Each structure stands twice: as C-alpha cells, then as structure tokens.
C-alpha cells in the first residue's frame, strides 16, 4: 500500500509527464519524523507562484493545501498579492480540487471584441 507522500509524488508527476519533473516543480522544503512528514512544492506560471503543502501524520489529521502568489507587484504596491486555494484532508479529491482551483486562477476572460459581420472595402 502506498503512503500519502508516494501518492503525492505520483499526482505531481502526472502534471508534467512525460517531461522531467525537476524542470518544472521544485521541492522547497521537506522534513520528517516517525510521526509526521512535511513537504512543500513550488511551481510557476507566467503570472503566479503556486506552493503546495503536504502533511502526513501517523495518528492525526493529514493535510494538503495550496497558495498562489503573484510574481509581480501591482503598480504602486511594494508587495505581491496572493490567495489561499483549495485545501483539506490529504486525499485525491483534495488534490483534484487544488488542480481545479489553479486552472480557475489562471483563466482569463475572453475579449469583448467581436469581429464585424462585414468589412468595408478599402
């Protein structure tokens, strides 16, 4: 039977398959004791940095969560904006909610521009 962290490795690996995982996603923190394992991953898009937090506890509640932070400050601001994204129990369902929240965060609204039905002659 897989540990939660082995499952997480599999889920993260599917994000970049067949490419090299280390070219896209960096593990920035990892620690462990017999009672608790903690890992933190980071990856980037053009506009945001996403951090995924995972805690596997032997006799307590496990946790999986994600945050998004802007890579660039807005004009006139000296900080980067960010948000908590989906989180919860360390399950595949929470992982799917995290991926869905990242996609929602990345979506941009389509332009309201509409192609004219006819173009006047030159």
Let me know the largest β-sheet.
Answer: 5 strands, antiparallel
Secondary structure tally: strands: 5
Average of pLDDT:
91
Rg? 19 Å
Total number of helices: 2
Strand content: 25-35%
Number of domains: 1
The SS-based structural class is alpha+beta
Distance between the termini: 71 Å
Strand and helix order: HEEEEEH
In helices, the fraction of residues equals 10-25%
Q: Unreliable segments (pLDDT under 50, ≥5 consecutive)?
A: none
Write down the overall geometry: elongated
- If strands are numbered along the chain, what order do they take across the biggest sheet? 1-2-3-4-5
Topology diagram in text:
Blueprint: H1 4-16, E1 25-32, E2 36-44, E3 48-57, E4 63-70, E5 82-88, H2 92-106
Antiparallel strand pairs: 1-2, 2-3, 3-4, 4-5
Outline:
The chain has 122 residues and is an alpha+beta fold. It has helices spanning 4-16, 92-106; strands spanning 25-32, 36-44, 48-57, 63-70, 82-88. The protein is elongated, with a radius of gyration of 19 Å.
Keywords:
five-stranded antiparallel sheet, alpha+beta, 5 strands, 122 residues
Tell me about this structure.
With 122 residues, this protein is of the alpha+beta class. It has one domain. The chain is 23% helix and 34% strand. The protein is built from two helices and five strands, in the order αβββββα. The radius of gyration is 19 Å and the shape is elongated.
């Amino acid at each position: 039977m897989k540990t939660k962290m082995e499952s997480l490795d599999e889920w993260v690996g599917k994000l970049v398959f067949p490419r090299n995982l280390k070219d896209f996603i960096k593990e920035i923190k990892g620690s462990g004791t017999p009672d608790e394992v903690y890992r933190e991953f980071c990856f980037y898009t053009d506009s945001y940095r996403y951090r995924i937090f995972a805690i596997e506890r032997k006799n307590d509640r496990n946790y999986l969560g994600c945050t998004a932070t802007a890579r660039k400050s807005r004009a006139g601001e000296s900080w980067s904006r960010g948000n908590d994204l989906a989180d919860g129990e360390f399950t595949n369902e929470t992982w799917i909610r995290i991926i869905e929240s990242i996609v929602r965060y990345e979506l941009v609204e389509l332009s309201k521009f509409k192609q004219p039905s006819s173009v006047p002659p030159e």
